[in-house]
Design a protein that fits this description.
The complex is a heterodimer of chains A (about 300) and B (about 240).
Chain A (H helix, E strand, L loop, with lengths): L5 E3 L2 E3 L3 E3 L40 E4 L2 E4 L8 H15 L4 E5 L4 H11 L5 E7 L10 H4 L2 H14 L4 E5 L6 H10 L4 E4 L3 E3 L2 E2 L4 E2 L6 E4 L4 H12 L6 E4 L5 H10 L3 E4 L2 H4 L3 H16 L13
Helix pairs in contact in A: 2-4, 4-5, 6-7, 7-9
Chain B lengths: L1 E14 L2 E7 L11 E5 L7 E9 L2 E7 L3 H7 L5 E8 L12 E6 L4 H12 L5 E6 L8 H6 L3 E6 L6 E2 L13 E5 L2 H10 L4 E4 L15 E4 L2 E4 L6 E3 L8
Parallel strand pairs in B: 7-8, 7-11, 8-9, 9-10, 11-12
Antiparallel strand pairs in B: 1-2, 1-6, 2-5, 3-4, 3-6, 4-5, 12-15, 13-14
Chain lengths: ~300, ~240
């Protein structure tokens, strides 16, 4: 197993595979399918201070090689997550988890981080400043370098755990946002969140998604994510979790060669709920084929 | 939930745009009436949720309407294998039926009621069924319900077969202890307005995953939000919040 191990700052992962936030619930439901302890880690559904019902339905539309979603950060709120979801997850997952959090003000981001800070299960925070589907929150903080730095600094003040900022691709220059987060003290970056898109129902002549627009994910966005990971990793000195359309062991290796230290698998979990398990099992085989001894050796190895 | 690679045994047109697919695969016996399967159709990214119509030993029957690109492609499959996630959703609660359950289905909402009727008949219940369609050439499996020993009423919107009108127009003609229904939302609302007993409604919603992970199909019920794919698709009448 050691050949798959990677580090995210001080955190050592048995392998680089992490189900992405919003595609794996709070984890325990997938434990019915396979032993989820084989995962490197898992990122739970974005958690906010207060309970959120999310957007009206339809929230989903299919696209070529992907999908749009506009869930709107539905979640039970941080206190319920601590009381109910984390204990359930603890029974089936025994490694440090990625706590994905969001807010509608800097104080809210801080408060969620503060309440989760004492939870032993949490290995690192992944701060969602990039949700395209809510107004006034999420992406609002991730579209401007100053705001991104302020959120980073604010969260760093209330927790001793590593803080990763999850970036949006829906910006003119992702590198400047990434640098701002690093300046603000971020321990790492996660990228990318979904790309804003839209579909129209031809018969009804109206958007398929009730929210009008949604976030595009799936294999369609892989090259975009890869490009951004490549650019950002060359501009910062903190580890990156690569996210966006990853659906095979080869995608994982490609994303890591571009500069990711670990990889989140998102929409692929919907098409095949066993995909993370399959990727972990296939990785050594693909590494053998490519002459890779330890996966950590290829991080940023694209010439 | 379980992933099963099935073999297609039959796939044929049985009514206007409506197809019956018979699949052979493991673990079909554990499926319950009202549950659904999620079908992988290459090259489409998302699976297609389809309710189960009948189960016999290792055989699963699906009846589906070819409405979009995915189901149209599905209707053209001849033989070969199909990747299914089975055992999704909660299914109908048979223990609440009483002695004279009424089953009400509209269009593509009819298929899940067949397996339910079969199970209720096995328990010796006196089952009545109301089937609603737009017109005569859309009608399917009326005879199959009659063969189970159900009392069957058919309505068509244009009056080309059975009673002219909607399923809710003939509910008064039946005495029932409890009802189970599946169909388009306007029909479910009409059934709710007319019904004189407790009952269960099966809902439809656009889904991402079909097994509770994406929160794409949440609907508001009296005690918060529930996922149509996980806590549903069947909801009890008393928990539903009807919205305009």
């Amino acid at each position: 197993m050691a050949r798959l191990s990677v580090r995210l700052g001080d955190l050592e992962l048995e392998n680089p595979i992490i189900p992405a936030s919003g595609t794996f619930g709070y984890g325990y439901e997938f434990a019915d399918l396979y032993d989820i302890d084989i995962l490197g880690s898992l990122a739970f559904k974005t958690t906010t201070l207060n309970k959120r019902f999310g957007n009206p339905t339809p929230r989903i539309a299919e696209t070529a090689s992907g999908m749009l979603n506009a869930i709107g950060l539905q979640n039970p709120g941080v206190d319920k997550v601590i009381e109910e979801e984390l204990p359930k997850l603890k029974k089936c997952f025994h490694k440090p988890i990625v706590a994905n959090i969001s807010g509608f003000s800097i104080e809210e981001y801080q408060e969620v981080a503060r309440r989760l800070d004492s939870e032993e299960q949490i290995g690192l925070f992944e701060v969602n400043v990039s949700c395209p589907n809510v107004s006034g929150g999420g992406i609002h903080f991730g579209s401007d370098p100053d705001m991104a730095r302020q959120v980073t600094e604010a969260i760093k003040k209330v927790t001793t755990k590593p803080v990763f900022i999850k970036l949006s691709p829906n910006v003119t220059d992702i590198v400047s946002i990434a640098r701002a987060c690093e300046d603000g003290g971020a321990d790492g970056l996660s990228l990318i969140n979904t790309l804003i898109g839209m579909r129209i129902d031809l018969k009804k002549r109206q958007p398929i998604i009730a929210n009008v627009t949604g976030g595009l994910s799936g294999p369609a966005i892989f090259p975009v994510a890869l490009r951004m990971v490549y650019q950002v990793s060359r501009a910062v000195n903190i580890p990156i979790i690569g996210i966006g359309g990853v659906s095979s062991a080869r995608d994982v290796i490609e994303m890591m060669m571009a500069g990711a230290s670990a990889v989140e698998v998102g929409a692929a979990n919907f098409a095949d709920p066993y995909i993370c398990k399959k990727i972990i099992e296939e990785l050594p085989e693909v590494m053998d084929e490519l002459g890779i001894e330890n996966i950590r050796d290829i991080i940023g190895g694209c010439k | 939930m379980k992933q099963v690679i099935c073999k297609i045994r039959e796939n044929k047109k049985i009514a206007l745009n409506t197809y019956r697919m018979v699949l052979k695969g493991d673990d079909m016996k554990q499926l319950k009436p009202g549950q659904f399967v999620n079908v992988k159709l290459e090259p489409f990214f998302l699976r297609r949720p389809i309710s189960i119509c009948d189960v016999k030993e290792d055989e699963l029957t699906l009846i589906y309407k070819a409405v979009g690109e995915g189901t149209k492609m599905m209707s053209e499959l001849k033989e070969g294998k199909l990747d299914l996630l089975i055992g999704l959703g909660n299914g109908y609660d048979l223990s609440k039926s009483g002695e004279r359950p009424l089953l009400i289905g509209g269009g593509v909402g009819v298929p899940p009621l067949y397996y339910l009727a079969k199970k209720l008949r096995e328990q010796g219940k006196e089952v009545s069924v109301i089937l609603g369609f737009n017109k005569k050439d859309e009608i399917f499996i009326e005879k199959e319900f009659i063969d189970l020993g159900c009392k069957v009423l058919v309505t068509t919107a244009d009056g080309s077969y059975g009673t002219k009108g909607f399923v809710s127009d003939v509910m008064d003609e039946v005495e029932y202890s409890y009802f189970y229904t599946c169909g388009p939302l306007p029909m479910l609302k009409a059934v709710n307005n007319k019904a004189e007993s407790e009952g269960e409604f099966s809902f439809e919603e656009r889904m991402g995953c079909g097994f509770g992970a994406c929160m794409g199909c949440s609907i508001k019920v009296k005690d918060g939000y529930k996922r149509v794919c996980k806590e549903g698709p069947v909801f009890e009448r008393k928990e539903i919040l009807w919205q305009d």
